[in-house]
User: Fold this.
Amino acid sequence: MPSLTELRPVATVLGGELDLRLFSYRDTTPLGSGSVDDEPYGGGAGMVLRVDVVAAALDAVYGGASRHRVVALSPQGAQLTQEVVEELAKEEHLTLLSARFEGFDERIVEHLCTDSVSIGPYVLSNGDLPAMVLVDAIARRLPGALAEGSGELESFSPELGGKLEHPHYTRPAEFRGWCVPDVLLSGDHGKIERWRKEHVR
Ligand SMILES: C[S@@+](CC[C@H](N)C(=O)[O-])C[C@H]1O[C@@H](n2cnc3c(N)ncnc32)[C@H](O)[C@@H]1O
Assistant:
């Protein structure tokens, strides 16, 4: 499987509109032996990402408190929507924080982050895939990421009132008796436009 940075549209904007920097909490942890998490207070299974470790990482990268949005990726965060993507895509700088095992010490979310975002109501093993989902969704909203005009009239866009785009068809016009709607083959652009508007779902 190719890595995120090799895939379009991330690859297209990388080094231009998009600059990605990856950091490991292990590189800046103040704890010995590269440790970054600890047992939960009150007992129970799993390990929890420590607040001092994340604070040290942010200090090392930004030289103190960051002035931009810091997003914790968590199944307990606000659900990611296209509206949130559009908003985050306008930010000049963005930090995405990922955890694993039991997740973040709550003080990280409360005091070191501005946002907490979930990519959906299910639990993944760590925040790497959620971070990649967010980077991809943001990258395709950056100038030059997509072919002219292909990113505006999409599902969930304000232009479609947050609804889903009309269905698409390509050749062959008929396959196993499954036919493309006649209007799309008619060459009548007015009718096609009307059909597309009627089929926004
Ligand atoms: C196994 S999960 C922790 C689940 C947590 N104990 C709970 O029950 O809510 C480990 C990490 O994966 C990431 N993660 C998992 N599912 C996610 C989702 N749906 N959205 C965003 N991040 C997620 C988060 O960084 C999370 O802290």
